[in-house]
Amino acid sequence: MPFEDVAIVGVGETATRRPDDPAELRSLERLYADAAATTLRSAGLPHAAVDGVGVVRSGVDTPANFVGHLVETLGFETVRWTTTADVGGANAISLVLQGALAIDAGIVETFLGLGADTPVDPTDPSAGLFGRDPRGYVRNYMDPLGTQGPNSRLAHVQAVHADEYGTTREQLGHVAVAQRRHATLNSRAWFDDPIDLDAYLDATPIADPIGLLDCVIPVNGGFGVLLTSAERASELDVDPIEIAGFGECSNHGDSRSPAVTTTGVAVAGREAFRRAGIGPDAIDCWQLYDDYPIIVAMQVEDLGLCPKGDGGPFVAGTDLGYDGDVPLNTSGGQLSAGQPGMAAGFVQLVEGIRQLQREAGTRQVPGATRGVVTGAGGVAYGKPLRHCSVLVVERGDRS
User: Fold this and answer.
1) Angle 112-117-120 (CA atoms, 0-180°, nearest 5)?
2) Which among 265, 276, 354, 357 could disulfide-bond with 392, CB atoms 3.0 to 4.6 Å apart, if both were Cys?
3) What CATH number is attached to the domain comprising 335?
4) d(CA 134, CA 118)
């Protein structure tokens, strides 16, 4: 186990919002404050116990040294170490690993990782996801080729996967249907009405072959994760969660000849399982980054649940329910719970920890002991994902 002296002892999240009225707005700082409070409360620790803080770089404009401003605003005093994460959907796992390294090195004893974003702003229609392009990367190298936003880029990826392996929309629809079932059991999920395969297939086309129910819905929200030393964890009335393995991979493949249907999760997953000393058959629940069902299907392949190219038949022929054979995104995932901007990876992380702490209520995976959480940041041209992270977590002993 890579971090024997580190335990995850708490997670938290705010209510999510899609305000259509300025009166319903919550500032980025307010979301961070609420997320910090609920996360500390989940572990029974006071503000004063926190000596390390990390935050994500949100998709909306923030000042330089935002983490410093935030530490002061939230009332944390004499913090010994601060950090940020700027890898999009992999931000949550990045903060977990940074915090674990800091605790393991003796720099801090208790680390609070926070993520919040406000992509939905009724007072500023130009604000929102992926709004910043100060260096012209998107304007110069992506827009001219017609890849105007993630929907069109992932439509290319899904079309290639279908061409190479015969993957169909009917197969991928099982991901959306299963996750919506989980969302009906999650009071925090944005969508709580069930859907069936016909509804998925009849959804409004967005960027062929991607339809409306393939796409996440942007929401405003805040999240937190709390790590501490094993010694302090033993003093708390919580079930500690241990980091059994991890792996990361950036810019997977050769950009001159990219493997469009393989993600960096293939590399990161191998490393995570190697460090954990286990294989996919030892995992009880899977919280896979799900900005689109095709990304879920490719991760299923890359993590070794099925051979490459069989992701479509696998998700169509496997019970993905919380009480099924391969419990998948048991909170509803981002497809149904919502995507909170650059804090999106926290959707998977928070649910993964809750499952192992046996606090997932009516969607609890029976006897969940080990789980996999993935994060994926950035949709590059000609590749599915830019930065991929895999975390293997397991239930520890309360002693």
Assistant:
1) 160
2) 276
3) 3.40.47.10
4) 19
